[in-house]
Amino acid sequence: MTSKYESLLATQSRLSYKGEVTVGSACLLVIIGLCLPISVQLVGELFIGEIVLLLYVASQLACRPSSVSRWPSFIRWILLSLGLSLLGYIMSDYAVGTAPENLLRGWSRLGFIAVDTAGLYMLVRRSSIRLIWLVLGYACSGIIVGALALRHDPFLPVWKLQLGYSVTLAGLCILLLVRTSRRYVAPMALLAIGFLHVLVDCRSMGAVCIFCACLQLSKVTQIRRWQLISYGATILVLALGAGFLAYAYRSGGAEFASRRLESDHERLAGILIGVREIAHSPFLGHGSWAGYTDAALAAYKASLKRKELLRYKLTKENVSTHSEMLQLWFEGGLLGVAFALCFGVLLVRAMHAFSTEGVASLPAALLVRLFVLTSVWALLLSPLGGGQRLLIALTVAATSIVLRRRVIVVGSSLRSHSGIGQHYHLRLFHRYAIRER
Q1: 295 burial class (0-12, 13-18, 19+ CB within 10 angstroms)?
Q2: Distance CA 74, CA 435 (A)
Q3: Using one digit for the tens of pLDDT, what is the confidence trace for 219-265?
Q4: Taking the complete model, does pTM exceed 0.90, yes or no?
Q5: What pLDDT was estimated at residue 321?
Q6: How far apart are CA 93 and CA 289, in angstroms?
Q7: How far apart are CA 403 and CA 398, in angstroms?
Q8: Do 392 and 343 contact (CB within 8 A), yes or no?
Q9: 3-class SS letters over 159-179
Q10: Nearest to residue 283, comparing CAs of 141, 99, 88?
Q11: 26 in helix, strand or coil?
């Protein structure tokens, strides 16, 4: 038992974090991040950063092919589930006779999710500071792209789809790089940004920021006698945030009210029609980039009880499944949804990891929370667009840091147990450490 105990503690020492990165590494990470949101149109939307990550992954695997065997088990499960989803897409595409251009777009989407996930994981797995520098470059590039889009698009759609999220990430990363502002200033700033999102009618982003900030504030209290007050304050802020959301929802003016009703109607229509179409063919999907048929839209309109909703135009162009999980199931069938299920399990693991003492003290903990909660929303209520590929990959890479930190915390608890308790913690630490070193 003693030799096994000492060997596992040696494994723990190899899982230590580097608190800082060199200037050269930080600049390289920022440059890679700057490339991520810049896209070009080939068959579909392709990001320059994805080409960079493809070259990086290929070079790393060519130099050290055996390193894949030391990747954490959840990374390999994610890649395996992507392979199963791709198999589902291939079977569905050949069954329904998908057009070649749509077939290529559907298959490459899953392929680039795998490449982005592997590349970003290899870039940031050693330090949470590396994640912050990478996301800072990604956010700054997103701000530039969004600012350029303002020349020909209205402010609110650009803010909601790109600019608002990029500004949030950039401000958060700058605060997290300052050591003294990580504990309280950064969560309070994110809370304020969340209220700002609500004011400009970005309800989902505002709710995610408010909830994320409250969760982080509830975990950073170190004095035990104040923990109860901290939890009470968190519940109070959440209640105020919910009340503020309700107030903004009711008093946003006629223009905001009309836009919200139309958006809610399109989302609900997409989900209900998607569920109906999946029920007709639950095992075999409708193929890559499949859209709803006119018959499906007509059947939904006929089932409406609120006939005033018919004034909103529902067409095949503006109605989609509006859910990553439903979209994968609708297009790729039962095998296609394998990735969504595996990714959902990973998100649950990440949220559970934050309950471990010491995980919330990571420099990038607040950033990881933001990615996880945003991905939960996207998995359930957002379509799988081009930008979601990067969000998924960033979330998986960020989650690897949290789970790795949990390995260290579990390992440190070995010293305080003996007998049966030590044996239990040895097994638990062995489960994580051997696969995630």
Answers
A1: exposed
A2: 9
A3: 765 444 555 555 666 677 667 767 766 766 666 555 566 666 667 77
A4: no
A5: 80
A6: 10
A7: 9
A8: yes
A9: HHHHHHHHHHHHHHHHHHHCH
A10: 88
A11: helix
Stronger pLDDT, 376 or 311, i.e. the higher one: 376
CB 137 within 8 A of CB 31: yes
| Angle between the N-to-C axes of helices 73-96 and 100-124, in degrees from 0 to 180, rounded to the nearest 10 | 180
The residue count for the chain: 437
Task: Tell me if residue 47 falls in helix, strand or coil.
Answer: strand
Tell me the C-alpha distance between 420 and 406, whole Å: 21
pLDDT digits (tens, 9 = 90+) for 114-128: 999 999 999 998 788
In the prediction, which pLDDT does 3 show?
A: 52
Asked whether 312 and 298 are in contact (CB, 8 A), the reply is: no
What pLDDT is recorded for position 227? 57
Q: H/E element holding 45?
A: strand 45-47
User: With contact defined as beta carbons under 8 Å apart, do 282 and 304 qualify?
Assistant: no
Give the pair of three-digit tokens for residue 94.
């050949």
Q: What secondary structure letter does DSSP report for 392?
A: H
Give dist(CA 117, CA 95) in Å, integer: 29
For residue 29, the Cα-to-chain-centroid distance in whole angstroms is 19
DSSP secondary structure code for residue 46 in this structure: E
**C-alpha triplet 122, 8, 126: angle, nearest 5°:** 20
DSSP 8-state secondary structure symbol assigned to residue 17: P
Using CB atoms within 10 Å of the CB of residue 161, give its burial: 0 to 12 exposed, 13 to 18 middle, 19+ buried.
middle
CB atoms within 10 A of CB 129: 23
Domain span at residue 57 reads 2-433
- Cite the DSSP H helix spans in 150-293: 155-158, 164-177, 185-199, 203-219, 227-250, 253-280
- Chain centroid to CA 112: 15
Tokens of 263: 């958006």
Q: At what angle do helices 48-63 and 23-35 cross, to 10 degrees?
A: 130
pLDDT digits over 18-41, tens only?
455 778 888 999 999 999 988 888
Q: Are 48 and 316 in contact (CB under 8 A)?
A: no
The domain total for the chain is 1
Task: Kindly give, in sequence order, each residue whose CB lies less than 8 Å from that of residue 142, ignoring residues fewer than 6 positions away.
Answer: 37, 162, 163, 165, 166, 169
Partners of 39 in the β-ladder: 47
